[in-house]
Fold:
Amino acid sequence: MEPDYRTWVAGGSHLELGGHRIFHRQDGPAGGRPVTLLHGYPTSSHDWVPVLPALVESGCRVTTLDFLGFGASDRPRDHDYRLTEQATLVERLWERLGITDTALVAHDYGVSVAQELLARDSARVVRTAWLNGGLYPDLYRPLPIQRLMISPAGKLLGPLMSERTFRPSLRRILGRPVADADLHQMWLALSDNGGRRVQWGLNRYHAERRAHAERWQRSLESYSGPMLFVWGPADPISGGHLLPRLRERLPHARFEVLDAAPATGHYPQVENPTAVAAALTEFLGSDRHG
Structure:
């Protein structure tokens, strides 16, 4: 049985990095192939639980963390949250854990952190896998509620969020049914430890994506290692409309498009974990390029 959010957190640890307590876990054999999983907004590393057992069983040493402001990591109020800072925290975590080279798997918010890490030092990333995220800001299609949360009004609305309003908002970006119990775990990750009060600060990452668009696009398109896209085409935000550009700009990449009915949406690892786990384990265990 998959661990719920509280059990997941209880099985992990905290390290002080950059003056903040950052939650992380390592699962799988100590000498296994290093893989780092980067989660999305507004949830946590717990999103990876549905695919983790398959990765561990395949021989991966899986490192997960909650970004600053998310899940069980510190959530300082009035902090200037930046994707570049999150990348620095990942680098510091790798240093503390003795991780030199690693595969990188990123979803949603995490894709921007991964792009920044590639821009800094792509040589340490042995292969990359990408799940739905805003890799190209000009193709990002926010829902009306997302536009509202980014606006000044979002500063007032964040603390007023409730699980009752969260569930239907999240379901708008899903393509497959997800049980209320699973959405409850995602809500716990969002709201834990005063999480509602930092949502507006975290949401400013959209402006940072635009500011770094050229650099991050270059880091993605110049990466020469093996690359896989595991994509939910039914995602209205970062879904099937990204695929033509990704295929054009990244001809060496492999694509696993989760279009079997009902087509997968924005959270592939939660909506369609069997297919995602199969694609990731095959890719992460493969010695061949591309």
Q: What stands out?
A: The chain has one domain: 5-283.
